[in-house]
Structure formats: structure tokens, C-alpha cells
Design goal:
Shape: elongated
Strand content: 5-15%
Number of strands: 5
Structural class: alpha+beta
Oligomer: single chain
Radius of gyration: 35 Å
Length: about 230
């Protein structure tokens, strides 16, 4: 209902989107406002622009706290922050709505950031768990190939690697851990190697004079100084 002395309601729609900075670096929302307002008796020629500026300013603080990766949630939040029923000396703001979008370039940046974040999480997972669970090496290699893409020989090599890793997990990894602890007590490389030989002799004695049949043969670096035996990411 409008009283006879009141001016009719006006609807202002943006002719072009306004940019709203977000909490995601380098990305801004495109905001298109639809504003319903009424000019008052003392309004001036620039009142419509003042209405647009008022609504856009009200949206800035809220948008700046929102990530760009959830557009519907951001739009709801910004709409909830827009002024309704506001009255100034020059106009009365009846309602305001905003439709948010992302520029094409911002969508590309966001997709790349999401891909980078996923890769970083994956690398951190591998760094934390790869050397606690070496079998993940094989799974990681298999995951990077589609079914049937690997030759039979390659699959056989991976299966052999998996068995070797499992065997090393059972035998050499605990042994090397004990050797590393013993090695810290000796500054002389020769004594560190003697400590490993003593551990091997103890293992043979416990197994009746020979190494367990499923224990892998030590490689050329097996008797490197204990201080050099490290797992590198």
C-alpha cells in the first residue's frame, strides 16, 4: 500500500556486475544487485547511485570473510547481510537481493588451487606414511596407470617388489633400527659395522645357524654406517 504523498517504489538492477573480494586470495565474486527502494521528499539526483553504493558497501565485509569455493553458501550469507527497511534522509530501502557468480578466470584459478591443495595433501600423506608402510610405493605406481596399461613383465616386477618390501618390513627394517640405535654408541665406522655383524650372528644363532629363508639378501649398502641409514622422503 502506498500513501498518496509517497513516491512510487523503484527497482534498481545493476547494469553490470560489481566485484566483491573474497577470503580466497586472488578471487572476487561478481555481484548483481536487485534493489527495491523509495525516494523521499528530500532526495537528490544522485540518490539511486547512493542506494547502490550503500548496498554494495554492506556486502563487502561479509563477502571478504567467505571462501570462493562454495558459491551458494556465500550468496545466502551476503543476502543475509544486506540492509532491509533502512531509512535515510533521502530514501527508504525496502529490499535488496544479490546474485553471485565467479568470473571465468577466477573459476580457472579456483580449480587450479583446489587441484594444488589435493596434491599437497597427497604428498604430505605419502611423506608421513610411505616409509612407515613401504608397500604404498607399489600401490602408488599402480594407481598412476589405468587397468591393462602395464605389461605383464612390469606387473611381475611390481609383485616382486611388493614381496621384497614385505620381507624387508619383517626382517631388515627392525634389524636396521636396532643397528642404528647401537651405532649411535660408536664413533668409529668399523665398530658400527661390527655391531651389525654381531646382530646378524645373533639372528643366525636363533635360527639354527642360518638366516631365515624368507629374509632378503642384504644389498651392497646394507652395512653402510648407521648414521647414514636414513629414510628420505
Amino acid at each position: 500500500m502506498r500513501w498518496p504523498w509517497q513516491s512510487p517504489l523503484r527497482t534498481t538492477a545493476c547494469s553490470r556486475p560489481r566485484l566483491l573480494p573474497t577470503a580466497t586470495d586472488g578471487i572476487s565474486f561478481e555481484a548483481v544487485y536487485t534493489i527495491v527502494w523509495r525516494p523521499l521528499r528530500h532526495s537528490h539526483p544522485n540518490t539511486e547511485e547512493a542506494v547502490r553504493t550503500h548496498v554494495h558497501t554492506a556486502a563487502l565485509d561479509t563477502a571478504a570473510r567467505l571462501p570462493a569455493n562454495d558459491l551458494p553458501a556465500a550468496q545466502d550469507a551476503v543476502n543475509g547481510a544486506l540492509p532491509h527497511g533502512y531509512r535515510s534522509p533521502h530514501y527508504r530501502l525496502v529490499s535488496a537481493r544479490v546474485a553471485l557468480n565467479l568470473p571465468a578466470a577466477a573459476k580457472d584459478v579456483l580449480h587450479q588451487q583446489q587441484a594444488d591443495d589435493q596434491r599437497i595433501r597427497r604428498l604430505r600423506f605419502l611423506k608421513e606414511h610411505l616409509y612407515d608402510h613401504p608397500g604404498l610405493v607399489v600401490l602408488d605406481r599402480l594407481e598412476h596407470h589405468s587397468p591393462g596399461a602395464l605389461s605383464d613383465d612390469h606387473v611381475a616386477e611390481l609383485q616382486h617388489l611388493a614381496r621384497l618390501i614385505a620381507s624387508c618390513d619383517r626382517w631388515w627394517s627392525p634389524l636396521m633400527q636396532q643397528w642404528e640405535q647401537l651405532g649411535h654408541g660408536f664413533s668409529d665406522t668399523e665398530k658400527q659395522q661390527q655391531a651389525m655383524l654381531a646382530l646378524l650372528d645373533s639372528l643366525k644363532t636363533l635360527n639354527g645357524g642360518s638366516l631365515p629363508t624368507d629374509a632378503p639378501t642384504p644389498g651392497p649398502d646394507a652395512f653402510a654406517p648407521a648414521t647414514q641409514w636414513k629414510a628420505h622422503p
